[in-house]
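Q: My collaborator sent me two sequences in one message, no labels, and asked for predicted structures for both. Can we handle them in order? The first one she listed is below.
A: Yes, handling them in the order given. First sequence, followed by its structure tokens:
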Amino acid sequence: MLFTTQKFLFFFLVVFAAYWVIPWRRPRVWLLLAASYYFYASWNSQLARLIFLTTVCDFFIARGIDATDIPWRRRALMLLSVVGNLGVLCYFKYANFFLQSLEEVLRAAGASASFPVLSIVLPVGISFYTFEAISYTVDVFRGKIRSERNLDHFLLFILFFPHLVAGPIVRASDFLPQANRPKRLSWPRLVVGGRLVLLGLFKKMVIADRMALLVDPVFADPAHYESAVVWMAAVAYSIQIYCDFSGYTDIALGTARLLGYRLTVNFNMPFASPNMSELWRRWHMSLSNWIRDYIYIPLGGSRGNPLRTAFNLLFAMTLCGLWHGANWTFVVWGALHGVYLIVHRAFRAATANLEEVQALAESAPGTALRIALTFTAFTLAMVIFRSPTFADAGAMFDRLFIPADGAGPPVPAVTFWTFAGIVLVAHLIGSSPPTLARWGQMSPALRGLGWAGILFVTLVLTPVKTWTFIYFQF
């Protein structure tokens, strides 16, 4: 049940109306639980049982952690939850990947090996809700939060349909207290939630899906197109995945807000970042914060010597790549971002006392250059991310760096430049507090006219064919 379908619109309107008609908090939770379970079962009813059972297990394990003060028992229960959740994730998402990789290693060593391909259906959203469950039990173990006493509240934390299948990755400390708070339907809530939903639909259906018309054919056969078009497609994919994923997040935040809940902000103008460290503080923020808190810092973070810090960064980002998918291209993409972060830290340390370099970097031209270089590095890494195989990525890089003639763009170039310009302007405005302040000071009528224009453009320019959200595969 995609957010962009009429089926979801009808589903949400029914849930929204019933939710606010019910005057009691607990029955509202039960309604959202039933709706969320139905939402997930619409993808696969068998796998809906899996998420229910694993969530119940995590609930009672966390209660067990809170019930004892004996350190080894607390640690054993925490590890039971972590290993159990990772075991389920590895089986469904990585079993065939690990078997195929082992088979290739054995064959390279001269051994005869052949493993069957397992018929496994990947549960939608498993990477997201697995990380949510792990963070919960680890936080209970660390004493950061108390275990939730109400099973229905904990089930809602994991199953809440706006964030269930593609995030953002929410923390129990942020979500669970909201289940007990009184909620009232108000005009500001409707306005904020509605704007977020509309903005998400515009990003996804107008920008991301139209960029896909350029991206898909070029990535499928880069040798057919001239180098300039391949560069255009590479940049278009960065824009597509940003608008696709942040668009989904906006819809998730908007629908949650309409139901009285606040979810974690996941994007903050990432393409305005002057370096890769800053980009990861703005891009998929719920994932990058999770990796920081549960992988990077436990490894030692930046507390050790530079070599140890570099290892921690590389290891954490490689796991980030593996989290995205069971393919070596994702692993290399994550490792490359680890290298980016290491290089940035090394450059920052080397130039920390060079005042002229610092002044140049902080100047307007220097900042613009750093932003352009960061975006270019991000885009080149995304070529690997988007490519099914290294051969496909190599074909793209050949065309990117070896100028060649070929066909023109599969869609009018003005389409690319228009929507790339919209994203650029949005980042310039969103990164400028004075500009945002002036927008906030505009009359409600003018702001309303602006949102009406976005609605009109969304209705008119939505392509006949729509694409599923990219992060649904993760």
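Q: And the one she listed second?
A: Here it is, processed independently of the first:
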Amino acid sequence: MTNAEDQMKRGLAAVILAAGKGTRMQSDLPKVMHEVGDRPMVHWVVDAVREAPLEASPVAVVVGFKRETVERSFEPRPDWMRFPVQEEQLGTGHAIDMASPLFEDEVFRANTDVMVLCGDGPLIRTGTLAMMLERHISTGAAATLATARIEDPSGYGRIQRDSDGRFQRIVEQKDATPDQLMINEVNPSYYVFKADELFSRLSRLKNDNANGEYYITDVFELMKSDGLLIEVIDAVAPEDILSINNPDQLATVDSVLRGRMSMGSNQEGMNA
């Protein structure tokens, strides 16, 4: 049996980060509950991982601020959906760790890949995620991330590569040097991991950074230092990662999404 054939037998789960408040949105709603295309933005992300060929299960939506509002929006709750709770906002790595009880079964964890996404990215496409997963499966990587190249990378983590173009690390905006800030290949937070390799490293994360938070992005550096394979695929269209941090940006993304809806879909990949 080839490595790819063996990988295809693995299950796929998803963890979607949806615990934040989004203070700049000028609203009492959780950030992910603001609507685009007449639906809360997190619903579009859940749809993306549930569409064929992904059909992720379980899908864990990590909630925090006004979590009941997020949970109620999915009623009646599907049997494949879970809502881990992040009581304190201690970073993306900490948020994912709140989903770790779902992966306690050793056999399940050893035979499952887990897609990690942010709940405030409604322009995400199933096709892009499928390309990322295909690269992950075909290479047998411990982790794979999809990147985007944009004219103005402000606000995004930068993808640092070595002189041969190989992935080195993800550098968050607040921790970047002036040279690193010039990099225009950015991290839109599209990840897929072997579940056992991910959850076994979360306890090693440190919060000695500008935000005092536990970054999921540091897991890639830990894996690389442990000699594991990290794959990177430049597959995300710049339009797909438009920021939503204020009402004006929300209106822009709403317009883009409605344009896609008028053409029949929001789910094709960048190269479709």
